[in-house]
Amino acid sequence: MNILEIVCYTFAGVVSIQVMFYLFVFGKFAFSKEKKQTKENVPVSVIICAKNEATNLRTFLPYILNQDYANYQIVLINDASIDDTLEVMEDFANTNDSIKIVNVKNNEAFWANKKYALTLGIKAAKHNILLFTDADCKPVSKHWISEMVSHFNNSKSIVLGYGAYSKVKNSILNKLVRFETLLTATQYMAFAKLGMPYMGVGRNLAYTKDLFFKANGFMGHMHIRSGDDDLFINQVGNSKNTAICVTKESFTTSNPKTTLASWIKQKRRHITAANHYKKAHKFLLGLFYISQLLFWILSITLIASQSFINVVVALIALRFIAQFLSIGFSAKKLNEQDLIFLLPILELFLITSQLTIFIINLFSKPTHWK
């Protein structure tokens, strides 16, 4: 058996792994039908942690205040801001009795740690159901709270939502950011449906106060600067207590990074947190990424060598069919259909970016959440 035969057999194995992920893992979310939930008017605390977010609060907080929901408070956490964030919060609170302000000053033991600020905000919340979003996020409808909360019941104490990014015309970076968000959401929604929840996003996430304190909050990973959303869900989520919410009225949207450097900085923090996931999650996510990378390397190698060309083309076609089906149905659920036509290009860009970020993080670790 020569080297090209070995490469071809390896390529067939890689394609098999990719098809398995796209059809049988991600397909658990992509091809599923969502059940309608009974909506009840249970009390909710919406929690927003803000650091130097005066402008965004002025713009987006009115969308939270305008929710069509009868019984909710808003907990605004000022995390040692040096701009007018606290003053903006106070202006809103003067005209809205539903707002509770938690003013957090820097603590030497928890310097620049968002988890410390969030913990104080959670303690101040008066309701058991906690719904999290960011200061730069906007609910896409007046029914955001009711849609997310409708998934709580006696067994479900975590609800994972979708935090989208705004669309920018004629921007390949915007499409890359949104594609990465789409792929990540497809993964964590699918794993949750398989009974293996491993993360959520703080732009749109809910869980109960009881669950937070039963798990001792963020104490298990307080020393890690990032991961207030994904590491906590990785710690406490299981097959019984986690639900997903993907009705379009439940989405939030925020403005994406506008430069490649700022997006890479953001992703560096996220990848740092992922290093602390449970071993099973790291293995499966790593297997998917490595199989992605090998698919492109081996397919290009085999096509360039003109070896086993008919078999190689058939395997490439099989993999792309599985990918387009899985990601296509997911994109339809998450209102990201415009990305599908550029899927191979965006995937190649994303794999390259992730590899670059991984290498950078080997030599330098991000330390602050902002």
TrEMBL record:
Domain named Glycosyltransferase 2-like: residues: 45-173
Membrane spanning stretches: 6-31, 283-302, 308-327, 339-363
Keyword annotations of the record: Glycosyltransferase, Membrane, Transferase, Transmembrane, Transmembrane helix
InterPro entries according to UniProt: Glyco_trans_2-like, Nucleotide-diphossugar_trans
Domain of life: Bacteria
Keyword Transmembrane appears in the UniProt entry: yes
Family recorded in the similarity comment: Belongs to the glycosyltransferase 2 family.
PANTHER family: POLY-BETA-1,6-N-ACETYL-D-GLUCOSAMINE SYNTHASE (PTHR43630:SF1)
Protein name: Glycosyltransferase
Species the sequence originates in: Corallibacter vietnamensis
Lineage: Bacteria, Pseudomonadati, Bacteroidota, Flavobacteriia, Flavobacteriales
